[in-house]
Fold:
Amino acid sequence: MAKLKKITEGMANGCAAIDENFNALNDELSPSTSATLNVGNGLSIKFTKMGLGIVQAEFKGELKAVNPGEEMRESDSNYTWVSQNFCPPETISLAGHLAGANNSFHIDIDPTGRVVWWGPVLSASGETPRGTVLYFAK
Structure:
């Protein structure tokens, strides 16, 4: 956690202390790790882990056929679980939308990194997932 300077003398140290505090917070929140993972069925997620364990997840890609409740994967034996560096301490739901359509979706990410689709039934390729969400990692 950033060490913040207390303002004790009003304007005598106020401006400098505020500037130092903002700089300390900015340094702590600067991106530290980033990776784009194809988690399956055409869904890619760009993960950026910042200070304090905050993770930004940005949905990308072009979805292939998937049903609600299914694990995201490319085939029966090929899938990429989310790296432990970006995993939440408990199962979380991340919401997004399908560009150019009137549909939304969410995915669950387990602490193990497993990703499950909870959106509309997609029987054909071509839907474009979009959205950016923030959550806390382990």
User: Anything to note?
Assistant: Helices lie at 14-29.
